[in-house]
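Morning. Coffee machine broken again, so started the prediction first thing and wrote up yesterday's gels while waiting. Chain of 403 residues, entered below exactly as on the submission form.
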Amino acid sequence: MSEAAYDPWSPDFVANPYPAFATLRAERPVFFHEPTGQWVISRYADVDALLRDRRLGRSYLHVATHEEFGREPEPEFLKPFWGLIRAGMLDVEPPVHTRLRRLVSKAFTARMVEGLRPMIRGLAEELAGALVAKGGGDLLAEVAEPLPVNVIAEMLGVPEEDRPLLRPWSADICGMYELNPSPEAQRAAVRAAVEFSGYLRGLARERRAAPRDDLISALAQVVDEEGDRLTEDELIGTCVLLLNAGHEATVNATGNGWWALFREPGELARLRDDPALVPSAVEELMRFDTPAPMFERWVLEDVEVGGVTIPRGQEVALQFASANRDPAVFADPDRLDLARDPNPHITFGLGVHYCLGAPLARIELAESYRALLRLAPGMRLVAEPRWKPGFVLRGLRELQVEI
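Came back before lunch.
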């Protein structure tokens, strides 16, 4: 059976899921995976359609209780975690999602994000320069991880001395998004949610009283045409979402991208010779080895996918990484082509939950690549990297390089 090749807990699958995806797209593009209790969707057209289909949602709690959906109620000890997460927009649906996104978008504007570019460029060059000065090291720890967390901290207005707190909180909270997280991972996520929300609550109250030129102040002050504003819980949930979504995936995109380039020396040489390729290279590297390869949705009304009826109450696993390698959409999809055009990858999602931070992620990745290409033109891989065990957020443990 082709579906036996789909094993999101297998280290071999995590390291290279693409042969299994090719088989699934050809033989079983829609199938029920008993171990995860999810319907696995692997073709681009189906993933694209379901992301836009309002009969599916990130949550079902706006239309049904856990019991009505045949699910166990969430344990009491997880309430601090879910209270924080559902105060942001990621795990809620319209009309609540619509209201939150409208308010947040008034502060998190394209102009504000573009205005961050000089700061992002300076930070990327500082980190790349430090890596060069050391003669190399772990590209993830030295450049990929500190860049987005410092950018988001700067954007939010988190004092410099507090920034080391953010990365561990983010990692522990994101551990809950993996498939069937362990009891230890769940407790770590709750601890991080309590500590992070407590920290941000204090910061938000300071900024409400004495606003500064930062995003927390802007979110605290934003008011729409109807006089609506974010509650304190919603502001905190939004800040946590911006850190988690903007940090984990960007780190993985950087590491996965450089690993792909090191395996394709012809394309890496092409990029080094023509830095003007960086914008299209960013798009292609996100398509080629998608940093967040799977997103889940709940079926709110019966839906037919590829001739298969998936009933209300079921969960679908939309395979972004598979869709991004679908030959029905991408010519020669397993080939890295840094000038690929068109490139309609769905790495940032589609529909109402399209990634609000996509413009920021693109700037961070572009400036990071530019800095390393310019300051470390001879950067080489020291050893083949190992993958972290998670699949929902898929990335490398480390990426050792020398200059």
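The CA atoms of residues 299 and 314 lie 5 Å apart. Going to sketch it on the whiteboard this afternoon.
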